[in-house]
Amino acid sequence: MTDLPLFLSRRSWIGGITALAFAGLGNAAPAQGRVRLAGWSKPISEITNILAEPDKGFFKARGVDLSYLPGAGGGDAIRNLLSGQADVAFTDPGSFFMALDKGAKLVAIYDIYPQNVFNVVSLKSSGIRKPADLKGKKIGVYSLSSGTRQNLLVLLHQAGLKESDVQIVVTGLLNFAPLMQGQVDATAATDTGLAVGLRKGIGEVDVMPVRAHLNMSSDLFVVREETLRERKALLRAFLQGYRDSAAWMMARPEEAAVLAGKHAIDGTQRDINLEVIRLRNAASLPEGKDAAARLGSFDLAALQKGADAYQALGLVQRRIQVSEVVDASLLPGA
Predict the structure, then answer these.
(1) pLDDT at position 177, please?
(2) What are the structural domains, with CATH classification, of the chain?
(3) Do residues 187 and 171 touch, judged by C-beta distance below 8 A?
(4) Cross-sheet strand order for the sheet of 138-141
(5) Distance (Å, rounded) from C-alpha 75 to C-alpha 143?
(6) Which pLDDT tens digits describe the chain residue by residue (334 residues)?
(7) Contact present, 249 and 285 (Cβ < 8 Å)
(8) C-alpha to C-alpha distances, 221 to 91, 105, 140, 235, 328, nearest whole angstrom
(9) Whole-angstrom Cα distance, residue 222 to residue 201?
(10) In angstroms, what CA-CA distances link 326 with 8, 128, 222?
(11) What is the SS3 assignment for the chain?
(12) How far apart are the first and last CA of the chain?
């Protein structure tokens, strides 16, 4: 993942983000209501901007009472949304596409991480250098409903391989231990997972970034169509609160790293927290000019390419017209 100053000059980036981080927070907004956010993960350091709400109050300042519902993969977040346990899902595009394919009435309203952060990692000693080398191998994924599995399938597709050509092993979030112990030959992970693994001493590795083949968004905020129709003001306030929190984490990564130690289950080492937070900050920025001011904006062409790839993979049966299932009207500044 590219570090932030490569996207923008340091002066313009810091200035823009700082202005966003503290804009509109002087006075609390009128109460809008409660938002139950279904996540794909447990409370981990890369979502410190959400976990820091009790300390920072970014959502409260917008009139939103936020609660977080942990999950084990983007599919979990979608299930919690569809069951009525949550109002918003923090999920990957693949899980979104597959739910749409099954008839779910859903809409994406914010692009959380426009950059593809997934990869497949193997030890140098394994001799696995390219997607074709994965044939017949055991490969770890976070869960069967996670973006790690779906992005692994994208990578396999590049080599003409199917899921049945490999053995997928569910390893959970801490999936580098099974790699080090020889329980799997390779593991599908995120850039932050790899950073932590390297810090933990996994040794020399080969990394196959999925973005080299498909640089599609990693995560989106998704809601039910009826929620979008009936609670636009609340959702708009939620997105403003989220963007405030994301801008704060970009402008104050060191402070965020400290708060990760207080709220994240994996936040015990501040230096690792800081590295993870910087990676997530980079993934949050859209490509192109004025990226800081466009937090949350969609790249419809990239998402359409992703939806078409999922159809080619057989993960969805019909063509999904992305422009019909994305609504950018609630984005701050829209």
Answers:
(1) 87
(2) 4-115+217-324 (3.40.190.10), 118-212 (3.40.190.10)
(3) yes
(4) 167-170, 138-141, 186-190, 118-123, 205-209
(5) 9
(6) 333 333 344 444 555 555 555 554 555 667 789 999 999 999 999 999 999 999 999 999 999 999 999 999 999 999 999 999 999 999 999 999 999 999 999 999 999 999 999 999 999 999 999 999 999 999 999 988 888 998 999 999 888 999 999 999 999 876 688 998 999 999 999 999 899 889 888 889 999 999 998 889 999 999 999 999 999 999 999 999 999 999 999 999 999 999 999 999 999 999 999 999 999 999 999 887 777 778 999 999 999 999 999 998 888 999 999 999 999 999 987 7
(7) no
(8) 7, 14, 26, 10, 11
(9) 36
(10) 27, 38, 9
(11) CCCHHHCCCHHHHHHHHHHHHHCCCCCCCCCCEEEEEECCCCCCHHHHHHHCHHHHCCCHHHCEEEEEECCCCHHHHHHHHHCCCCCEEEECHHHHHHHHHCCCCEEEEEEEECCCCEEEEEEHHHCCCCHHHHCCCEEEECCCCCHHHHHHHHHHHHCCCCHHHCEEEECCCCCHHHHHCCCCCEEEEEHHHHHHHHHCCCCCEEEEEHHHCCCCCCEEEEEEHHHHHHCHHHHHHHHHHHHHHHHHHHHCHHHHHHHHHHHCCCCCCHHHHHHHHHHHHHHHCCCCCCCHHHCECCCHHHHHHHHHHHHHHCCCCCCCCHHHCECCCCCCCC
(12) 28
- Residue 109 contacts residue 57 (beta carbons within 8 Å): no
pTM, to two decimals: 0.88
Which residue is it, tokens 């394919």? 101
